[in-house]
Known about the structure:
Order of helices and strands: HEHEHEEHEHEEHHHEHEHHEHEHH
Structural class: alpha/beta
Number of domains: 1
InterPro entries: DUF6282 (IPR046249), Metal_Hydrolase (IPR032466)
Protein name: Amidohydrolase
CATH architecture: Alpha-Beta Barrel
Shape: globular
Strand order of the largest sheet: 4-5-8-9-10-11
Radius of gyration: 19 Å
Largest sheet: 6 strands, parallel
Helix content: 25-40%
CATH superfamily: Metal-dependent hydrolases
Pfam families: DUF6282
CATH topology: TIM Barrel
Number of helices: 14
Number of strands: 11
Distance between the termini: 6 Å
Amino acid sequence: MTIENETPDCRSYDLPDRLLHGAIDTHIHSGPWLRSCPGRMDPFQLAVAAREAGQRAVVFYDHTFGNSAGTAWMVSRQVDGIEVYGGLILTTCLGGMNPRAVKTALHYGAGAKFIHFGAHCTYYMASHEGRMINGAPVPFKDLYPKFAQEELSRAIRIPLEDPISPELDEILDLIAERPDVYLVTGHLSGPEAIRLCRLARDRGIARILVSHPARARLSLAEQKQLAAEGVFLEACCSDWLFHKGLRRTNYYVEPEWADEIAGIASEPAFDGFVGWAKQIREIGVEHFVVGTDYGIRSAPAPVEGMRLLASSLLDLGFPVQDIRRLIRDNPERLLGLSPERDTA
């Protein structure tokens, strides 16, 4: 279906909806959730809503237990007319850097579509999350000895120099053996994300995505260099539309470990939507995969997030072709899907 670009004096209220036809949201937190941090919709409702909006596919994340491949398989069996994918996020629930968890996930349900190197339980995130005490941010590791002992000790780290651990070595080999699977850096530090991308490239892993929190810790020059090496960069609605400073038990059951200082909304690199979009333009839309990172109760529903994204990009004058590339064409390439185009 051909969609004409808007002009400043002739704009369409339904163009954002039409841009969702064939789109893929590559970052939806589908649950199940901790009871202290409920989701917006259940996985079946999320898939139905995306299908009704005309989207081609959704990719589910589970950053608590980590395995969304099984959830995606169940939803795919019950909801027709949309492709549903899941993967594995390495977590301390699974023991951190765990090759057995990766091997199992690759053969679980329809198989993990991605392997992600940790969200709230990377060493970087675990050492930065914390609370405001008397108006100043204090990391949990400095407040609670138990947190430092139990969580930091098994949190995920990527060594910046050789040698790498046998566990990381095996995980990279497992991903390299599956060209249909892509690697996601997770919430690593900037130097760790660069190192992991280079290690993955050396193993012949073709599809790599730098997670949006890790991208926030990279300079513009570093992002451009990774893009030139064929790495996809992730950008999400939550980079610029999320709750800054709201305490949330993202991962930990313990209520005192509800973070309020290290969420993505607190990253200074993303200074609102305009600055976020400027980076995409400067680096090049061909290098970005854009999703919502929604699914939590206090955020918009993912489909509405995709509409908001398309609308906002249109307001900044992004051509229809560029928006299509960000939310349809590049996600297809990341997932290894053949293009599906309506020729009517």
